[in-house]
Amino acid sequence: MIQPVATDLYAAKAPLEWAVIGNGILFTAQIPIGADGAVVDGGIEAQTRQTLDNLRHTLVCAGGDMSSLTQVLIYVTRREDLATVNRLYAEYVSAPYPNRAAIIVSGFAREEMLVEMVAYAAMQETGDG
């Protein structure tokens, strides 16, 4: 049984939850959208920062933090953006680091997106489910 995580992120029009918890594991995919639901302007740096802010917010709403992360899959559209993503990622995540992969893709559902992150985190069991 999964439990949706209530966040203050923009309510998606697609049939999805920003995050769910099942068996003590948080599953989430985060994109660079602001409170208005639009992809943020400003290139890879702004988009990566927004995606990481959204991820951190989701983890806090679920009762965790960035140290709860167990794996992060980073998708970018341009290989040359990985250096910027790595620099910003290091501002949000510290050792011991979660397992991680970086994948270059041809694009996303929203054409203006340059980055997306799929993350998994270990959450404390509440014992009420």
From TrEMBL:
<dbReference type="InterPro" id="IPR006175">
    <property type="entry name" value="YjgF/YER057c/UK114"/>
</dbReference>
<comment type="similarity">
    <text>Belongs to the RutC family.</text>
</comment>
<protein>
    <submittedName>
        <fullName>RidA family protein</fullName>
        <ecNumber>3.5.-.-</ecNumber>
    </submittedName>
</protein>
<keyword id="KW-0378">Hydrolase</keyword>
<dbReference type="InterPro" id="IPR035959">
    <property type="entry name" value="RutC-like_sf"/>
</dbReference>
<dbReference type="Pfam" id="PF01042">
    <property type="entry name" value="Ribonuc_L-PSP"/>
</dbReference>
<dbReference type="GO" id="GO:0016787">
    <property type="term" value="F:hydrolase activity"/>
</dbReference>
